[in-house]
Amino acid sequence: MTLKWIDRGVALLLGLGCTMIVATGLMMRGDAGVIPAIAGSLGIFACLGVGITTCKRAGDDAPPTPLPIYRFSIWGLCVLGLMVLMVSVGTIVALLLFLLASLRLLAGLGWRQAISIAVVFTALIYLVFAQLLGVPLPTGQLSFT
Amino acid sequence: MDALLPALGNVFLPAALLTLLVGTLAGVVIGSLPGLSSTMGVALCIPITFNMPPDLALILLGAVYVSSVYGGSVAAILLRTPGTDASIATTFDGYPLAAAGRGGEALGIATIASLIGGIFSVIVLLVIAPPLSTIALAFGPQEYTLLAIFGLVTIIGVASERPLKGMLTAAMGLVLACVGLDAFTGIQRFTFGQSELFDGVPLLPALIGLFSVSQAFNLSIPAGGGILNDQSQPLQGRRLPPWQSIRRCFRTIMRSSVIGSIIGILPGAGTSIASFISYNEARRHSATPERFGKGEIEGVAASESANNAVTGGTLIPTLTLGIPGNAVTAVFVGGLTIHGMIPGPSLFTDHAETTYTLILSLLLANLLFAALGLWLCRYLIVITRVPGPVLGPMILIFSVIGTYALRNEIFDVWLTIAFGVIGYFMERWRYPAAPLVIALILGPILEVNFRRSMQISHWDLSTFFTRPLSLALCLLVIVALAYPLWSRWRRRKTALN
Amino acid sequence: MVGKQRITQWFPLTAMAALISVGTATTTLAADYPEKPIQLIVSYGEGGSTDTMARIFAKYAEDVIGERMVVVNKPGAGGELGWVHLANAEPDGYTIGLINSPVVEVYPFTREDTVGYEYEAIRPLANVVTDPGILAVDADSPYQDLDAFVTAAQDDPDSITVSHEGVGGDDHLAAINFAKEANLDLNFVTFNGNAEATAALLGGHITAFEGNMSEAASQVQEGEIRALAVWSDERMDAIPDVPTGKEQGYDVEAAASRGFAVPADVPQDIYDKLLDVMQEVIEDPEFRDEMAALNMPVNPIYGQDYADFLDASHERLKALWEEDPWIDAE
Q1: Contact C127, C279 (CB under 8 A)
Q2: If you placed Cys at C47, which of A89, B12, B236, B334 could pair as Cys (CB 3.0 to 4.6 Å)?
Q3: Per the structure, how many domains does chain B have?
Q4: Phi, psi (degrees; rounded to nearest 5) at C190
């Protein structure tokens, strides 16, 4: 898909969204809807502009740099795993596993290097945030905070 | 002023110097971690200050405040991960410089600019605080409305390469700024019944998502590479920035220091307006405005001197009137009252010694963070050599922890990640993120003050033109809007000749 | 090589699945409460009067209860956001909150369709401070007393603007109450907080300021602003020269009360323990002194009495709302 078509899709979607926002804004009680209506109209205007320029010029008509699907999904899984583990198990364990996984799989580090970086970094986070600064971290069952 | 000498003695007591050193170090570290802001730094220190004597407590809070604002520049320049809205404008030129291997130079100029801005505003605070506090009062809702518009003008410069896409993201930012419970009517707008959104889209999660998390994505996903465009290239500028670049930026630094100090005094404005306006003014006065956004050292200088000049400025209404100038000084006021010092004129009479101790310690804190910054510069830029997939996960971790710590709300962390994904694709599809964030920050200021003006004037729009100060601001906005058009027209004319 | 890649590919998933299954087991309540830090939800921002009170209270309460009390600010929606959290928090005693009357009992009917908590979902513990409302003007203002102000507002309603901090907030209610009593039609200007409203008053951008006594007392003492009336039963110690509304012939009483509450389902033994802690702190003379220095009038009401006090206010305001809603419905 080229950027041109992406732009058209974005303009169409956001344009529809903005129209709905203007409509809701106009129905709001008192002066609550004034700024939403203005912002929405601005959005519609910009969407029209973006849509029209895609027809006029071939400026952005190049495919975007291909998305590395494999690495993107690994990373996405790592981040999702971090979030889920953080609330279920606890921040410290989640951080350790997240770092280990992403350093192994994405940075391509060896086991020894990945483990040492992950452990040192997690320990640092624990010491600085939980102990020194007393920042509340999401806690789960196995959390040490 | 009689209290100045004993205050001077207080500052140089060993306990005070130690507190100052600890505070400055902590501030620089907190500020430079992606995802942590100066508000949080000061808020974190409040419980610690409970058991300290008032003057040491104030020294600690003050040192953390000024140095964390400076620390923000480190992350903004080297990683493009501003932890606070104050250093967003620093990323515009700081990060391209770092990517080109000139991170050391950018850090150096940021340090010098922060130092000058900070010292300037503290001197203003020390010498003419009481008369200047009247500026805080001269600004009514009408003036704040125009000030917000003045700040929004920056978007035009930032998005000049893709004006329509910039307008679109700015409109989205304005829409997001309307989310939440409306204080004027009590109704909900676009909250979808989500109670976490009643307060609006929380600013820092959006900001950290769009800048830091998307940067973590950018760094982690490609197989090779990192922050530097060209990994084999030597890192330049491992020392003080060259004299000629300091001299070149000097006018910008002074102008931004004045802008920062004045905007700092205004209680309803906030830090980021100062750096946006200063950045835009630097661009407008520059002979080479087209280089802004691609690694212009003056852009870094403008933003950094402005946001550090705000620190002294915000303390002026805080200390003289008891009206905190921004979120950080609001926390500061809490810290003061806990020690039985109610901010207001009595601070300069009943508690004069403590107050002057605070002001003098701010001067020292500025010198200290600058020395620390210049010394650390050469070590810090090595970060730009770290492989992206190693750096990315760490940035993500800081962002997640920083966002959670803001309101202890896991919803905010999910929001940050979502904004990160949006930011990642916006960048791939060439939609600029900065206009969205600027509109999200300034939108609420614009809206509440506009509606307040209308409540006062009974929906008479002429109220913006009949007050001398707001008329002056109107003219400034017109100049800022018309200038790019006029200069383009003039350039075309000279090109034709 | 292929095998190795497959393992590394599945590693995050399996690790995740394993840990999720561990994580979903539920925590059981410990008998010896408290055994971990207690969250104290403040529904307003850092540095405000509610926050300051909470932090000072937490300092004393930590010594009594023997655990850390973490003040968590959840500002937003005029306090509603924090109370939604309080009402929906795990009822294990590790989340307590500050509630601000009258707003906490008003939202459930003024925001009936959208409100995120039920009035019954929050169980009051103890009231600490009752901070009366005041109506103040700038020191340079021509209005010397309430009568002069009322006369001016009757003669030229458009020339008078009065600040409040959000529709349906306690300042707004106080101002409505006063307007009704004095038969006035006031023009309200909405502000986000005390700081901006005070700046606007001192700068002459608004005529009068409706706020809380504790937040304005120091400015009144300094002579920067002139309080026309304090909406309390008796004059306040912090500003003894300011007459009450009643003295001037306007039967208006309005105050913001700040106290503590827990989610309704907190076990009775934990509730009792917390109530004892409250009592010990509030009766501590040192705590009283600190409150007095901040111009915050301590007004202790404990347990069931506090609940009754809030219920009465709830009923009274609900009747007032049904008679004449202050947020005009669509």
Answers
A1: no
A2: B334
A3: 1
A4: -90, 135
Rounded (5°) CA angle B403-B408-B412 = 45
Q: Which helix (H) or strand (E) holds C190?
A: strand C187-190
Query: Which residue in the block uniquely carries the two structure tokens 């292929």?
Result: C2
State how far Cα C267 lies from the chain centre.
Answer: 25
DSSP of C65-88, one letter per residue? HSS-EEEEE---GGGHHHHHHHHH
Give the CATH H-level superfamily of domain C132-248. Periplasmic binding protein-like II (3.40.190.10)
Residue B492 tokens read as 């075309």
Contact criterion met (CB below 8 Å) for B216 and B402 = no
CA C281/CA C63 separation, integer angstroms = 9
DSSP string, A27-92: HSSTTTTHHHHHHHHHHHHHHHHHHHHHHH--TT-SPPPPP-HHHHHHHHHHHHHHHHHHHHTBHH
CA nearest neighbour of A35 among B252, B155, B446: B446
Asked, as a colleague might, if the bond just before C34 is cis with ω within 30 of 0, I would say yes
Sign of CA dihedral B7, B9, B12, B13: negative
Q: Is B199 exposed, middle or buried (0-12, 13-18, 19+ CB in 10 A)?
A: buried
Neighbours of B288 (CB within 10 A): 9
Q: Which residues between 14 and 53 in chain A have a beta carbon less than 8 angstroms from any beta carbon of chain B?
A: 14, 18, 21, 24, 28-32, 34-36, 38-40, 42-43, 45-47, 49-50, 53
DSSP assignment of C138-170 equals: ETT-S--SHHHHHHHHHH-GGG-EEEESSTTSH
CA B452 from centroid of its chain's CA atoms = 25
Structure tokens belonging to residue A101: 């996984």
Q: What is the pLDDT of residues C257-298, one digit of tens each?
A: 999 999 999 999 999 999 999 999 999 999 999 888 888 899
- What are the pLDDT digits (tens) for C211-247? 989 888 888 988 889 999 999 999 998 899 999 999 9
Cβ of C19 within 8 Å of Cβ of A89? The answer is yes
b/e B361-387 (16+ beta carbons within 10 angstroms → b): bbbbbbebbbebbbebbeebbebbebb
Contacts of B344 in chain C (CB under 8 A): 218-219, 222, 224
- Percentage of chain B beyond pLDDT 90 is 44
For residues A32 and B337, give the distance between their C-alpha atoms in angstroms, rounded to a whole number. Answer: 36
Q: For position C295, what pLDDT does the model report?
A: 85
CB contact residues (below 8 A), chain B span 137-166, against chain C:
137-141
Q: C38-131+256-323: what fold?
A: D-Maltodextrin-Binding Protein; domain 2 (3.40.190)
Q: Each residue of B12-66: pLDDT tens digit?
A: 889 999 999 999 999 998 888 887 878 788 877 877 777 788 888 889 999 999 9
Measured distance CA(C202)–CA(B271) in Å, rounded: 22
Average pLDDT, chain A: 86
Contacts of C195 in chain B (CB under 8 A): 267, 323-324, 330
**What integer is the mean pLDDT of A84-100?**
91
The pLDDT assigned to C27 comes to 41
Which of A74, A97, A136 lies nearest to residue C15, judging by beta carbons? A97
Q: Work out the minimum CA distance from C309 to partner chain B, whole angstroms.
A: 26
Nearest to B418 by CA among B193, B208, B218, B219: B208
Whole-number pLDDT of residue C16: 46
- Return d(Cα A34, Cα A32) in angstroms, integer: 6
Domain extents for chain C? Answer: 38-131+256-323, 132-248
pLDDT of C65 higher than 70: yes
Instruction: With CA atoms as reference, report the closest residue to B44 among B453, B389, B334.
Output: B334
Distances (CA, A) of B363 to B233, B253, B322: 38, 18, 21
Q: What percent of chain A has pLDDT over 90?
A: 50
Contacts of C171 (CB under 8 A, 6+ apart): C133, C163, C164, C165, C210, C211, C212
